[in-house]
Amino acid sequence: MSRASDDLILSRFEPLFAPRSVAVAGASASLAKPGNRFIEALRKHGFKGEIYPIHPHAPEIDGLTAYPTVADVPEPVDYAFVAVGAQAVVKFLRAARNRLKFAQVMSSGFGETTHGIELEAELVRTAREVGIRVVGPNCIGLYSPRGKLPLLGGAMDAGGGIGVVSQSGGLSLDILGRGRVLGVKFRAIASIGNCADVGPNEFLDYMLADPETKVIGFYLEKLRDGRMFFEALRNSQGRKPVIILKGGQTQQGQRAAASHTGALANDNRLWAAVIRQTGAIPALDLNDLIHHFAAFQASSLVPEVGAGRAILFGNGGGTGVIASDQFGRCGIDIAPLNN
Amino acid sequence: MSRASDDLILSRFEPLFAPRSVAVAGASASLAKPGNRFIEALRKHGFKGEIYPIHPHAPEIDGLTAYPTVADVPEPVDYAFVAVGAQAVVKFLRAARNRLKFAQVMSSGFGETTHGIELEAELVRTAREVGIRVVGPNCIGLYSPRGKLPLLGGAMDAGGGIGVVSQSGGLSLDILGRGRVLGVKFRAIASIGNCADVGPNEFLDYMLADPETKVIGFYLEKLRDGRMFFEALRNSQGRKPVIILKGGQTQQGQRAAASHTGALANDNRLWAAVIRQTGAIPALDLNDLIHHFAAFQASSLVPEVGAGRAILFGNGGGTGVIASDQFGRCGIDIAPLNN
After folding, report:
1. A318 touching B (Cβ < 8 Å)
2. Residues A256 and A317 in one domain
3. B153: contact with A, CB 8 A cutoff
4. Which end of chain A has fewer CB atoms at under 10 Å, N or C?
């Protein structure tokens, strides 16, 4: 399959990261459910487009006209936040046929559990059939400052150039919150959960195509189609830094991942080879990932300069020693300056 | 040489960490020199004892009566902050003969430079002769909340249980500042520079003896008497966690250390053996050191429980996976719980 042009990729993903209209399934007329919290967060962070609550019978939710299905909404919808029970998701998609571009499915109870595997397969079959792309299920949403799309529980700022794709929702929030402490500015953070439909490879292609995304980071536990991700990653070589935090690097980490997103045990030698062959950068843990973001954000890459040598400026002696050690471990030579 | 009793060690070091009186050499009647900044910091942080500026002819400095030498001060002095030119330090000590317990010598120009090696030897000979213990030279002072002793440029809080000894002054401040961000509370931070006289082994003995010091950390570049430090460290085994950040772990780090504190290249296999034989904990870099402090501060060690197994509680799936990986790397087994 040949890769689509950057312009085509950008226009396909625009409704996801900067939707003009948003449908919200899983809001209640009387309770503060995740859908209500999402509506509140959209308003708080200045979302400019239309918001359409989807509810089987409520005429109004949080002061907005509600509709029984997306098909009843007066215009086609770019993005739906879907936080209804797993069993109701397929029905939601069927009713939104050809009227919705992206559905982000928060609901869990799919492929991450044994009894949900068949339901997830049905979700994917339905999505293809009705022409809707699905992000998730089992995720927590998207952070996109330019689209005023908030993560529930996260603050929003003016945004920057760091794009993140995470198979863990909780870590998406951690990356946002801890990144902010270090001054990391994000272009987008996509929580993608089980990635039953849209997978890491498509997000990678998008972030490579997006001129405002300068650095790309992943938290991954498993890959449905490793070959496609590898191809997308190889295609990235030298264009933008791609940093990968792989969850389940040890046997017991893999056991934990298996119960989290249903990841199968991966061969870590394979991952090491992928990293080596594509020029991606491995991150050891969350701090390491975020520090990579901070470092790349603070520095401009100058590919013309031969790697392997550096000059160290600094004022503290001990700091210079520790930095020299760290460069030494990376095989970068700090030569003494000539007098 | 048999080790002194804990009580004797504590009483010997009390004048250093909680001095009743302080002499300050290197303050000016007209300029804001380091001595003046130290006096200002002592007052700001509520130092309760007497402060005696030492100056060849000024009668008064910063509103305090100044004295030509420590011998002229009306009472013996516990601690002197010495920030005069290297050539003047020996003269200062001679004049303070038997009237001063500890002199912390900020001045550089001693053993860390080729031309200062002989001067440092003279400093040590003099200190022994006149009965004064010297901390430094080439350091930045002490942080001791209970003694209201500040580090220049550092804030002060109520203190806690982390004791630190650093051969780098700048890193002492970094440890204080970055530790505070993570909520680390310090019992004391001793910047010891070239440690010409009082060395890391004596500080280790003191911090082991001090019941309020719960965790001990070192930043070390070189050891004058490695055998004594090793003995002190072996003596610590199991009593308190001792974390060591060794600067100059790589060849080029050693080059940097050589020009910082005059450290000779150390054999890192020797360090690895010391760590293994004493149960000390190696830290890779400054973050690692401070995170060890935060972890030990937050947890109580229960030595009765066999190591090697742990139970992980948490709410985020991705966090659990990353934590499982980290435990896996440390050889700690996270067994699945029985139903």
Report:
1. yes
2. no
3. no
4. C
Task: Give, in order, the Cα–Cα distances in Å from A232 to each of A191, A242, A301, A303.
Answer: 19, 11, 21, 21
pLDDT tens track for B58-69: 999 999 999 999
Q: How far apart are CA B331 and CA A269, in angstroms?
A: 19
The domain that holds A113 is classified in CATH as 3.40.50.720
Mean pLDDT score across all residues of chain B: 90
At A23-50, the pLDDT tens digits run 999 999 999 999 999 999 999 999 999 9
Put simply, whether A252 touches B (Cβ < 8 Å) is: yes
Give pLDDT tens digits for B173-210.
999 999 999 999 999 999 999 999 999 999 999 999 99
Q: How many structural domains does chain B have?
A: 3
Q: Is residue A162 part of a domain?
A: yes
Our CA-based measurement puts residue B74 at a distance from the nearest CA of chain A, in whole angstroms, of 38
ipTM of the complex: 0.76
Angstrom distance (rounded) from CA A261 to CA A110: 9
| B164, B190 Cβ separation under 8 angstroms | yes
Domain range enclosing B77: 6-135
Question: Which region, left, alpha or beta, applies to residue B63 given φ > 0 means left and ψ of -120 to 50 means alpha?
Answer: left
Residues of chain A positioned with their CB less than 8 A from the CB of B334: 252, 256
Residues of B in contact with A221 (CB under 8 A): 318, 321
